[in-house]
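Hi Y.,

Following your request, here is the sequence exactly as I used it, all 30 residues.
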Amino acid sequence: MAMVLLLLLPSPVTTGLDQLESQFSEFLQT
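Below is the corresponding structure, written out as tokens. Let me know if you'd prefer a different format.
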């Protein structure tokens, strides 16, 4: 899904989403 978002959205948006995804992944792992 992340790959699809990266293809569809502009760079600033995808950068923000990538950071959110990283934080969310860490949250799920804890």
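The mean pLDDT is 77.

Thanks again,
Q.
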